[in-house]
Write a structure and sequence with these properties.
mainly alpha, elongated, single chain, about 80% helix, 3 helices
Length: about 120
Amino acid sequence: MDGFKETFTRFVEAVGLVIDGAGVLVIVVGILVALLRVAVGPVSDDPYRRLRQDLGRGILLGLEFLVAADIIRTVAVTPTLQSVAVLGLIVLIRTFLSMALQVEVEGRIPWQRGTATSRQG
């Protein structure tokens, strides 16, 4: 049984690592796409705001992957009270970042539905 547990732990760690890598890749690709859209895209009224919105979208998506990887590793590999508390803190911080970025990108808080005018350029 210990062999199965060790194999499972290694597998879950590998899955977490792949999802972490995907999150980082999404952020990097988001940065490159945002820069490319500003550099070669149509001229907009406010290219700086457009760049910030595109960067925010890439970071938001990447953060979702990173949180998912943390949850998988913590719940499946090390479900101790200390690791769950650390996970809770990480999720809290990343959730705050995600909400702040979403406000920046969409111009409204996440639970509002279309009450604010869109700031997209």
